[in-house]
Design brief:
Helix content: 40-55%
Shape: elongated
Largest sheet: 6 strands, mixed
Distance between the termini: 71 Å
Structural class: alpha+beta
Strand content: 15-25%
Radius of gyration: 35 Å
């Protein structure tokens, strides 16, 4: 994408502390003075080389020289809208990445990222001069850069961007640095265009930067977007920070105390004060009211080893008063974007509270630069994220060990999005999720026996993540060994066993959409419901309460009471059958009601003084019994249960089906059995019906 005009004086408060501002205009004009000697690096990229060598002391800079010479000669004569040489843009983008620690291949592609789009340079030339890797990245960035910021073009453009990012995350790294430089130089554009680009940056690129762990880019992009979209809040925040600059800051004193504590304990550590960026201060003011002196920054403690992090934590919590609610361990449980640190807060005797972040130097590099700090993702021996692999395959099956799980999921469902609007809304919903959970499969299947899901996901999301479209037939789940409905939300480290129906015609219910959180699940459910309109019933009145089961007050049949001429009735509450142990009680009218011994009514009868009568069974074995079947709701369940009962030769006297509650259905049957000994077999047959998880007598 062609860069916009530079405004060197715009928003000086966004200059990174400790960095000398480069005169890109001077560097660009120097680049136009003519070719540089081949035996030394051009002066225009001296800053890039210096930043690159700081992270990679042994890097070969000759390829950067050749890339710069090609970029400068191909862009020669092109100017930015403010009149600067165009070469200043790829130089600035490359410098951003060099300061983040990007490896040489990324910087080479960054210098060339606009050449194929804006000049006569071809991909074949790039491949011949710099190899397949650089060509692959430049091609991916070129596809991403062909963007029209019209509303109709955005969804399809970002779909292409995600595909390119999925193949190699370095494509997105260059895109984010490109957007950061253009946002820095957005001041001379029309206000309406500034707002349009800022909104796209806020909705898509900032969440992507967060998920890729590139915090250094993400925080500056947030501040730039904040200044454009919320100018009044930005000015108030700027005034707060300016007022704090003239006040006494308690953080340096707290940092000195922390250094002294760690020095006395023998822990080698570097203690820094990290000022909060504008958006962070604004959020603090919204949640805590007017910020206090210690709210304008945090204390950062850097150590050598993971064990030292916990040693620092122990010393801090011993020598200061810890704020327990602020403690978070992202080392034992890293965030989905590879972030690792210990977070805590300590209170001093003076009443000041300071937030403290503890991490190793390597964690710090990853926290600042994310995937950029992980090196070449397809080179042999590249460092891999926790739990990742460092192996790589050929270009046809590229394996990127820095690709986070959320990106793999996103690449899977984007292919199923039926139209650009669905893709765009699903993408924004997916990127709005800022936390991820991991659940374990009960069968231990899959690559590592786990499923990664966004926080708030339900069993429905786990079903589609594990089975794809086969999850249409899911009828229930066991979470941590307990039966539950598909709507149940999952928590981190839950164990999930998903239950599938044997009926191939089973499909999702419309209310599944109310509980599905992942785009993959929502898209698959919506597609099935659209292709099966008969399954989608129009809204009806709220379900009525179930009708009470009519008591048939059956005669004693094969039950005989030791009371001459007494009418014997089997109790409808427990429906005793031979050879149950039973008890009889005389009720109004002189009749004898027979209950199972375990029935709660027996105790009530005895407590009110009902006359007890001995009861025994005749030799005949036919009986009536009431059974309750608990099941997950699915199509044709009632028909399947009735068929199973009929197959056992049992007569259905009455049946009641209660309205579904959380996708679970309760069926009550009063049945006439010709032989009571067939009752256990009948109950087993009913339990074998797909979707039924329990059958019991009333």
């Amino acid at each position: 994408m062609s860069a916009e005009a530079t405004n060197p004086d715009a928003r000086p408060e966004f200059r990174r502390r400790g960095r000398t501002r480069l005169d890109l205009l001077r560097l660009g004009r120097a680049a136009l003075l003519g070719p540089t000697s081949r035996d030394r690096l051009p002066d225009a990229i001296g800053h890039v080389a210096e930043a690159h060598r700081a992270h990679h002391p042994d890097a070969d800079l000759s390829v950067l020289r050749r890339a710069y010479m090609l970029a400068e000669s191909s862009h020669r004569g092109q100017m930015r809208k403010s009149g600067e040489p165009y070469i200043t843009h790829p130089l600035a983008v490359t410098l951003i990445l060099a300061e983040l620690g990007a490896e040489t291949t990324t910087l080479t592609a960054s210098l060339l990222h606009d050449t194929v789009e804006d000049t006569d340079v071809t991909l074949d030339q790039v491949r011949e001069e710099f190899g397949d890797e650089v060509c692959f990245i430049v091609d991916g960035v070129t596809k991403v850069e062909r963007i029209d910021y019209g509303a109709a073009a955005e969804p399809e453009t970002f779909r292409k961007m995600l595909v390119a990012t999925g193949n190699d995350v370095r494509v997105m790294s260059i895109k984010l640095a490109d957007r950061l430089h253009n946002m820095r130089t957005l001041g001379v554009m029309r206000p309406e265009k500034q707002v349009r680009i800022a909104k796209v940056t806020r909705d898509v690129l900032i969440p992507l930067a967060e998920r890729l762990g590139v915090q250094a880019l993400k925080t500056e992009l947030e501040d730039l977007v904040f200044a454009i979209l919320h100018p009044e809040e930005y000015e108030r925040t700027r005034a707060l920070i300016a007022a704090h600059a003239g006040e006494r800051d308690p953080l340096p004193g707290i940092a000195d105390s922390v250094r002294a504590v760690l020095r006395d304990s023998g822990i080698q550590a570097e203690v820094q004060i990290r000022p909060r960026h504008f958006v962070s201060v604004h959020r603090i003011s919204l949640t805590r009211g007017e910020p206090r002196g210690s709210d304008f920054g945090r204390i950062l403690v850097l150590v050598a080893e993971n064990a030292d992090c916990y040693g620092v934590l122990g010393e801090l919590h011993t020598c200061f008063t810890p704020v327990v609610s602020e403690f978070k361990d992202f080392i034992a449980v890293p965030k989905f974007n590879l972030y690792q640190s210990l977070h805590t807060a300590i209170a001093t005797p003076e009443g000041n509270v300071a937030e403290v972040i503890v991490r190793t130097h390597r964690m710090h590099r990853v926290a600042e630069a994310g995937v950029v700090a992980l090196g070449n993702p397809v080179a042999s021996g590249a460092p891999a994220p926790p739990g990742g692999s460092g192996e790589a395959e050929g270009d046809e099956e590229r394996v990127d060990p820095t690709r986070p799980g959320w990106l793999s999921r996103l690449l899977d469902w984007q292919q199923s999005a039926p139209d650009p609007d669905t893709f765009w809304s699903s993408l924004r919903a997916e990127l709005a999720q800022d936390r991820e959970i991991t659940v374990f499969r009960a069968d231990g299947g899959g690559a590592d026996g786990t499923i990664s899901l966004p926080a708030g996901a339900s069993c429905i999301d786990a079903a589609y993540a594990q089975y794809g479209e086969a999850a249409h037939g899911c009828i229930g789940a066991r979470v941590n060994g307990r039966l539950t409905s598909l709507a149940t939300p999952l928590a981190d480290a839950d164990t999930v066993q998903l239950l599938l129906a044997q009926d191939a015609s089973s499909g999702p219910a419309p209310d599944w959409l109310d509980h599905a959180r992942t785009p993959a699940a929502r898209i698959a459910i919506s597609a099935w419901l659209q292709s099966h309109p008969a399954a989608v019933k129009p809204p009806t009145a709220p379900p009525r309460a179930p009708l009470p089961m009519v008591s048939l007050r059956p005669g004693g049949r094969n039950a005989v009471a030791d009371l001459p001429d007494a009418t014997v009735r089997l109790a409808g509450c427990c429906t005793p059958v031979p050879p149950d142990s039973v008890a009889g009680f005389v009720v109004r009218g002189g009749a004898v009601t027979v209950h199972r011994i375990a029935c709660p009514a027996v105790e009530r009868m005895r407590s009110v003084g009902r006359t007890s009568v001995a009861v025994h069974w005749r030799a005949t074995a036919d009986c009536r019994v009431t059974l309750v079947a608990e099941s997950f709701g699915r199509p044709h369940l009632l028909a399947d249960l009735t068929e199973a009962i009929a197959h056992e030769g049992v007569e259905v006297i009455s049946a009641t089906v209660e309205p579904p509650v959380e996708q679970r259905v309760r069926h009550t049957y009063t049945l006439h059995l010709r032989d009571a000994t067939g009752l256990p077999g009948l109950m087993r047959a009913m339990r074998d019906v797909p979707g039924v998880y329990d059958v019991s007598r009333v």
